[in-house]
Design brief:
Blueprint lengths: L24 E9 L3 E7 L12 E5 L24 E8 L9 H8 L8 E10 L2 E2 L5 H11 L6 E3 L3 E3 L1 H10 L4 E6 L6
Parallel strand pairs: 5-7
Antiparallel strand pairs: 1-8, 1-9, 2-3, 2-4, 4-5, 5-6
């Protein structure tokens, strides 16, 4: 039997809630965010449910599959040591200085040529027929690091434990959008 993969309607991204200012907390993980286009990446089971053979769908909050206009993400399945998965992340385009390029991303999402799009992955929601939503964030991230082999087109966003203020200062200096603060023990809601 091939591992079951949920349909896009079965799961939706967990959206952050704003905070007045950055904070430190020993029980939180802090991650930089680029302010890109939020998506869920669905890697379907492929031939014989072998890792690396599945079809990829990149679905945004409006339910659009963006994979047809982003061929650089079509090989995402080969980056996973899993037959199927659902990844939560954001699409970004970097300018020549490594900073977010919002107009470049908008052009690529509209099907225009331009700089390559990368998928920055924050979470793993489903793998090889198993929902991970109820697991603590630290366990989901551990599983993500286990199955994802990063490359130019996809990377797991690093998380810093406890030090939100320092990370916020660093990402602000680099021109990034901000940081996400998530309770290390929290499920995916």
């Amino acid at each position: 039997l091939e591992p079951a993969l949920p349909r896009p309607a079965d799961v939706a991204p967990m959206w952050p809630v704003g905070a007045d200012e950055p904070f430190d907390a020993p029980d939180h993980l802090f991650e930089p965010t680029w302010g890109g286009h939020r998506v869920l990446a669905f890697v379907e089971p492929g031939v014989g449910a072998r890792p690396g053979t599945g079809e990829v769908r990149i679905v945004d909050a409006a339910g659009r599959d963006l994979a047809p206009v982003l061929p650089e993400l079509g090989g995402l399945a080969v980056r996973l040591a899993a037959a199927s998965a659902v990844l939560d992340g954001e699409l970004v385009v970097a300018d020549p200085h490594g900073r977010p390029d919002a107009p470049g991303l908008a052009a690529r999402l509209a099907g225009q040529p331009g700089r390559p799009v990368a998928l920055l992955v924050y979470d793993l929601l489903h793998v090889d027929g198993r929902w991970l939503l109820s697991l603590p964030l630290v366990k989901r991230r551990r599983e993500l690091r286990r199955i994802l082999r990063p490359g130019d087109e996809v990377v797991a966003v690093p998380a810093i434990a406890g030090e939100g203020r320092a990370l916020h200062a660093a990402v602000s200096a680099q021109g990034l959008a901000g940081i996400l603060a998530r309770d290390a023990a929290s499920p995916y809601l």
